Amino acid sequence: MxxxxxxxxxxxxxxxxxxxxxxxxxxxxxxxxxxxxxxYKPEIVPDVPADKLYSDGLAKLEDSDxxxxxxxxxxxxxxxxxxxxxxxxxxxxxxxxxxxxxYDDAISASKxxxxxxxxxxxxAYAQYLMAMSNYKQIPDVTRxxxxxxxxxxxxxxxxxxxxxxxxxxxxxxxxxxTRDQLAGKEMEVGRFYLEKRNFPAAIxxxxxxxxxxxxxxxxxxxxxxxxxxxxxLGITQEAQNAAAVLGHNFPESxxxxxxxxxxxxxxxxxxxxxxxxxxxxxxxxxxxxASAE
Length: 293
Description:
Keywords: Cell outer membrane, Lipoprotein, Membrane, Palmitate, Signal. By secondary structure, the chain is an all-alpha fold.
């Protein structure tokens, strides 16, 4: 038997050591084969059929025992490695962790699934679970947005790799929400700099919103804030251009009314500079250009 062979090998390794240390051991009756007996007791794992483990895991899910379900699916994955049961178990491990709000564990399981089974018919779902596990952890806009960046990257990868999957439409909607969140963070920082009269730093933040998140709800305010910041620095041409781009793309926006009023009280009006950074961005995104009033 394997256990007996292992003990014989252990005894063979220990015997020379006993001979060398014989004087120190005195007259003790030491059986070297017992040195490893307790430490290396073989563990006998019951041979549970794969379908039984899988059914047990599903039953745990039904009872909302997500931790118990994970244990069943983990056991299935380990006992039936490289089988289709293992593939299914790994995906269900990701799902059970997601349902149990163990989002980081769900991300890890999803990544393992995609690494092992990139061409699987369920790869899109694994990508979706990974994206949603990040999405569910998006923090308040006042906090660091690293998780939002990860969610956006995973959602975009889903749309790019699996554009015809049943999860693509939901991913696209959540991409817009996540982009809006990231834009909101930039706006918060930009407003802080504007209030502190650090106009160059504020401009950098508002330009980032316009260049990266021009289709979000924050774009209107960002253009108006750029009008304010440029005007405060005395860069009137850029202020006029920002107001013109704002007015042409969002003519009914209250932010445009504010920008227009700021220029008007100083005898100016919105005016486009077609070669400007802002004009090029909105021409690319919407096909529109701003017009002088």
